[in-house]
Amino acid sequence: MNFEHNVPIYIQVTNDIKSNIIKGNISLGEKLPSARDLALKYKINPNTASRIYKELEAEEICYTKRGLGTYITDDLQMINRIKKDMAKILMDSFFIGMRDLGFVKQELMELIDQKYD
Amino acid sequence: MNFEHNVPIYIQVTNDIKSNIIKGNISLGEKLPSARDLALKYKINPNTASRIYKELEAEEICYTKRGLGTYITDDLQMINRIKKDMAKILMDSFFIGMRDLGFVKQELMELIDQKYD
Amino acid sequence: MNFEHNVPIYIQVTNDIKSNIIKGNISLGEKLPSARDLALKYKINPNTASRIYKELEAEEICYTKRGLGTYITDDLQMINRIKKDMAKILMDSFFIGMRDLGFVKQELMELIDQKYD
Amino acid sequence: MNFEHNVPIYIQVTNDIKSNIIKGNISLGEKLPSARDLALKYKINPNTASRIYKELEAEEICYTKRGLGTYITDDLQMINRIKKDMAKILMDSFFIGMRDLGFVKQELMELIDQKYD
DNA sequence: GTGGTCTAGACCACT
DNA sequence: GTGGTCTAGACCACC
C-alpha cells in the first residue's frame, strides 16, 4: 500500500480495512491479524498498528479479547452502518464542494458518464 | 463562516475565496481587502490571513502591488483553471472513495437524483 | 455468565465464586470442580481456570488435596472475612468517587431510595 | 497526584480533570494547559498528556483549536452529562457488587451513616 | 509555542 | 503470543 502524504497513516489503514469489510474481503466475526502482524503487513510501527485497532474499536467495528486478539464485530448492521457513514462523508464534501464551484445536476451526470467511458 | 475542525483554516478560507471568484462574487482585477481586514472579516489571526494571500499568490490567483494592496489576477483563463483544478481534486477523492466502497455507476446516478429532490 | 470487557476474566470468575460462597450457594468444605470442568462451566481457557484456583488459594479461600481436587476452606470466619474485604473495596471506591463528584450524604441516601423503588 | 497501580495513568488524570470540572475548579470555555505543561504538572510523558486530551475530546468534554491549545467545551449541559455518567458507573458497580454480597437497603443506609460519623 | 503523528523500545497483564 | 500502557524523542503543520 502506498500512503498519501498529508493524511495520517492510521486513518488510511483504518479506511482500507473498512473498505475490505464492506467489499467482503474480511468477514463478520473474523480474527484480524495481531497488531504486530498488521505492522509487518503495512510496513508500519506496531504502535501505529495498535492505534488503528483502537480507532476501529472506538467505531465499534471490532473488539478485542484480552490475550487472544482482535475480532470483527459480528453485528450484521455494522457493515451497512459504516458503508453509509463513509459514503455520507464522501458525498457531503463532494456535493457541497461542487455546488460551491457552480456545478449543477446535469453537469454532474455528464462528469460521471465521462468517468465511466 | 463556520470552520471545520481538522482542516486548516488557511485552506478553508483560500477555498472560500476561490469559490467566490468562480461564482463571480469577486471580479477579475478586483482589489482584495488588506490582510488585517481579511483577518477581521473571517475572524482569524492576521498571520493566518497573510498566509492565505501567500497561498493565493503561489497559485497565481492574485498578486501584490507594493504599497497598494493585493489584486486578483485579470487573466481570463485563471478562473477556468482553478475551477478545473478544484473540481478534479473533489472528483478524484469522490470517485476513488465510492469505488472502494463498492458503488457502481448506476448507484451514483441514483444518489445524485435523490440529492436533488 | 457475561464477561465485562476491560476487567480480567480471572478476576470476574474469582469474584463470582466468592459471591456464591457468601450467598451460601457453595458450602464450607465443599469440593470445587476440577480446573478443566471449571473451564467448561464458565467457557474459559483451562489456563485461566487454573489461575483462578491459584488466586483463591492465595486468599486462603480454598486449598488443594493432591490427587483429590480443590476444596473450600472450612474456616467459619473466612466467609465474614471475604465479605468484609469485598465490601470494603466496593465502598471505598464508591464513597471516594462520589465525594470527588461532589455528592454529599443526603444525596447518597436519596440515590439509594430511588434505586430500591 | 499519586497514581494507583493497575489503572492507567491516562484514565486517572482524565478522571481528575473531569472531577475538577464538576467541582467548578475548571470553568466552561477555559483554556487547558498545553499538553507539555500538563505533562510537567502531573509528571508524566508529553505523549501521555496528549492522550488524555484526546480522551477528553472523544467524550466531547474539550476541543482543540489548532496551534492555539485545548479548551473546555462551553456546552452548559456537558457538566451534568459527565457528572451523571460518572455517577452511574460508580453506582452500578457499587449496587450490583453489594447486592451480590447479600447486602440489603437497610444495611447500605447504615454503612453510609457510619461513613459520615 | 501548540497540537498531531510516527517511530522505537520497554514492561506488564492476560490467555 | 496477544494487546495495553508508558516513556523518549523526532518531525511537521498550524497559528
The topology string of helices and strands of chain A comes to: HHHEEHH
Structural class of chain A: mainly alpha
- Strand coverage percent of chain A: 5-15%
Largest interface: A-B, 25 and 25 residues
The shape of chain A, in one word, is elongated
Number of distinct helices of chain A: 5
Strand adjacency order, main sheet of chain A: 1-2
The largest pleated sheet of chain A is described as: 2 strands, antiparallel
Keywords for this structure?
homotetramer; 117 residues; mainly alpha; two-stranded antiparallel sheet; 5 helices; elongated; DNA-binding
Task: Explain this structure.
4 copies of one chain form a homotetramer. With 117 residues, chain A is mainly α. Chain A is built from 5 helices and 2 strands. Chain A has helices at residues 9-22, 35-42, 46-58, 76-100, 105-115, and strands at 62-65, 69-72. In chain A, strands 1-2 form a two-stranded antiparallel ribbon. In chain A, strand 1 (62-65) and strand 2 form a beta hairpin. In chain A, helix 1 crosses helix 4 (76-100) and helix 2 packs across helix 3 (46-58). The radius of gyration of chain A is 17 Å and the shape is elongated. The relative contact order of chain A is 0.12. At the A-B interface, helix 1, helix 4 and helix 5 of A face helix 1, helix 4 and helix 5 of B. The structure holds a DNA duplex (15 and 15 nucleotides).
